[in-house]
Amino acid sequence: MGSNTSGPRSTSERFHDPDAGVIFQSVDGVKYRIHHKNLECSSNGFPPMELGSNEKEVASLSEESKILDLLFVFMYPEPQPDLEKLSFDVLAALAEAAERYQVFSAMAMCKVHMIANVHQHPLEALSYAARHNYEDVLDKAAVVAIERPIDEVVFALVNTPHAAFAWVRYYEAWRKALERALRRPSSCLSGCNTWSTSCISVLEKLGGRVGSLCEVDKIFSGLGAASCCNYQMKDWRSKVNNARNAIPKFSTFLVDDRAKKLAFGVMTI
Ligand SMILES: [Zn+2]
Questions:
Q1: Highest taxon of the source (predicted)?
Q2: Which of 51, 96, 120, 122 is the most buried (most CB within 10 A)?
Q3: pLDDT, greater one: 221 or 140
Q4: Which helix or strand (DSSP H or E) is residue 22 part of?
Q5: Which burial class, exposed, middle or buried, applies to 127 when counting CB atoms under 10 A from its CB (0-12, 13-18, 19+)?
Q6: Ligand 1 centre from 189 Cα, in Å?
Q7: Residue 238 C-alpha to ligand 1 middle, in angstroms?
Q8: Model-level pTM?
Q9: Residue 130's pLDDT band (boundaries 50, 70, 90)?
Q10: Where are the domains of the chain?
């Protein structure tokens, strides 16, 4: 499709219509000619638009051509790229570009695919959601990221200090819930000998890891407890579940922080 016969391309094969008045250039030197009306209808954040709207002027963008190739397709009425086939790095970069230039359809599709990636990339999804205020993504990523060491998560949120601070409070809520979960009933009602063996097994699995609260069913299954222990064991399991379910969603800690910022001025860390 391209007119170049060799070497790196200098013009987009897809976006080269001479009637398209806005010219963008990727950081790796590929030019894109985009119709003004498409920019207006499908995006709201191209700051260099005025510069680019002057014929022959070129607006330089900070994205690579492999990202802009995808992004600009979202601004035209044609089949959209299959984001499922992208590597996560390209998806994340596309999501950032979509947010920066407010390409609405790309923003929505990238969000869906970021949610699909929370299990493989919880910290990246958390950071993306914190920067762009997507509470549903935050909450989905947070319950996966809670398995990670607190310093790793805080580091991932370094560009959004309010979210990093909220994470410390969220982690503390999980730690307190674990503390409650570890309070076991003192003995089986019949005073049997197998109670302590079952208890040790549960305590070992709960351990000192807050993420163990996500595995309550696994922790309390296959204990081989004597039937006389069942009532107390069931009671303990239900208390652990209650402790886990009482932990507020991560987004609620952010809402709290925003309210405090409004009340006390801008928070600095
Ligand atoms: Zn017993």
A1: Eukaryota
A2: 122
A3: 140
A4: strand 22-25
A5: buried
A6: 7
A7: 18
A8: 0.84
A9: very high
A10: 185-246
